Amino acid sequence: MASRTAKNSFVKGLFLAATLFGLVVLAILIYRIITQGIGYLDGDFFTNFASRRPENAGIKAAIFGSIWLMAVAAPVSIILGVGCAIYLELYAKKNKFTRLIQMNIANLAGVPSIVFGLLGLTVFVRMLEMGRSVLAGGLTMSLLIVPIIVVASQEALRAVSKDIQEASYGLGATKWQTIRRVVLPAAVPGIITGVILALSRAVGETAPLIVIGALSFVAFVPENIWSGFTVMPIQIFNWTSRPQTDFHDVAAAGIVVLLIMLLLMNSIAVLIRNKFSKRY
Question: Fewer Cβ in 10 A, N or C end of the chain?
């Protein structure tokens, strides 16, 4: 018993040390970024475009570009992802073919993002001749996050109790009425959480957009889905690649803005989940 207690204490201490190590590294990283970029976080930073002078550089074009990109990627991804999950989970027959599809979707959720960038470059930029536009970038990011939304939505739908579905059928409701009025409302917390977390990943991705040729120096706001664009990760990457030290401080300010945006999106996901979890 003494040996087992000692092993338990050792493993517990090891796990605690690993957790503390990660938290300390994260705290140091956040402290370093904030102290380095706090001097550039002012009103001009949000209203100025990119500049060759660090004191005049701003993130306006990148913020609007990210918003335009999400405006294209979000509806496409949600419709395709949730629709695919509903079909596979509630309509499709359980056989080898559907299991093969689900296995491939799960594998796609773990594919490196640059692979989706190559696919977007081939299909959207060159084959469909969309060029380096917001539409091409949004559709490319949709390819990246649709598998994540499908997997999260399937798990949410699978978690809905079969008893309430059978009760709905017992009252004479059709299959679609049961899905729309019983299953989907109960699965909303999990679905929305998966959607927002997937969109958070899309906001922070750089590799696919670099592959399709998204611009790194933009001094304009996109006017429509055919306009050129840049996003915050690419703008930050451009600043960090500059040799001037001041541009590294500007990049740190951009990282702070991106972190705040990601934290807000994740917080919204938590709030929505908590709100709907109380109803169902």
Answer: N
What Cα–Cα distance (Å) separates residue 42 from each residue in 55, 67, 136?
Answer: 11, 20, 32
**Residue of 83, 272, 73 whose CA lies nearest to 184:** 83
Whether the CB-CB separation of 141 and 66 falls below 8 Å is answered with no
Looking up tokens 């380096």 gives 132
pLDDT digit string (tens) for 200-221? 888 888 888 888 877 767 778 8
CB atoms within 10 A of CB 154: 25
Distance (Å, whole) CA 106 – CA 147? 7
Task: Please state the pTM of the whole predicted model.
Answer: 0.84
| Burial class of residue 271 (count of CB atoms within 10 Å of its CB; 0-12, 13-18, 19+) | exposed
CA dist., res. 92 & res. 97, Å (int): 10
Q: How far apart are CA 76 and CA 166, in angstroms?
A: 32
